[in-house]
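Have a close read of this protein, sequence plus structure tokens, and explain what the tokens say about the fold. Thanks in advance:
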Amino acid sequence: MASSRGPKPAQITLSDAERDQLQSWSRRRTTAAGLAMRSRIVLAAAEGKWNSAIARELKLSRPTVTTWRSRFAEHRLEGLSDEPRPGRPRTVTDADVEKLIVTTLETKPTNATHWSTRSMAEHLGLSQTTVSRTWRAFGLKPHLQDRFKLSTDPFFVDKLHDVVGLYLNPPEAAVVLCVDEKTQVQALDRTQPVFPMLPGTPERASHDYVRHGTSSLFAALDFASGQVIGSLHARHRAEDFLKFLRTIDEQVPDHLDVHLVLDNVSTHKTPAVKRWLNRRPRFHLHFTPTSSSWLNLVERWFAELTTKKLQRSSHRSVRALNADIRDWITTWNQSPRPYVWVKTAEQILESLGDYCQRIIDSRH
């Protein structure tokens, strides 16, 4: 129950027109983030909620809630706008800014997949500087596109709790290994020599290359220590995965249980693999949900291997590639850096729920 201590907050009573406008500002994705939050403050105040309760609900400070509640009580809708600042009068009106934002979010140019500052400025009769500044102010980047994929695994929640619970509360007398394969690692050699970096000039390499074959890297990242067990194979088959399991069995002390975090691909559950695991009860498998490789921390290690070693290396043979990877693993293991998992399963589910809601809202 909200506390009644302190001065009584201003009573807010909304007209139908004010309520409609505030609800529109709070929901519409073209609204500035600040104005949307102020609208939610006033709508909550109109429900009779105290400032402390509104602050907790919207995750704001109490002075912020008090300020905008009072501003609305005194100036109504106009009070929710930012106060004018000293300086040269504005040459771009609020209507111009709104039209720019709405056009950016809700339309596309006829001759391209996204707006540029030049095409938008020409379309609306504004300067490129105005378009650029407005986009920066609202965090809009039409030239960028992020990619995502939501898991459709019917057991997503159960698997999430299993893997995250293993990270946050590892079992005693056991080792937790994040296991996966980096397949089709190519031995690439540039068609021309690489020119070294010079003062004022970055390293330069030809854009084209010659392929000299591929290799598959099986890796197991020790969650606690950051140490990596690696094994390179010419192909990516169930028998190669079984060989890697034997390598893990040899390197992990016999008195420790082995918990493997891995994905549910077919090579991980063939009859031969199952028979081998059945004869070794100290091995426990924890499968990540479909399309959820981000749950497997060895993927983070693969990313470091790619960016710090493979991306800019040249190899004239698979043998040279494998030797380079083995050397990199040896160097890593001399000073390993374990990755720290901090989010609980509940926090992840809440974030995914918020993201899904944003996707749904964006369609309206």
User: Anything to note?
Assistant: The longest strand covers residues 174-190. The chain has three domains: 16-80, 94-138, 156-197+204-346.
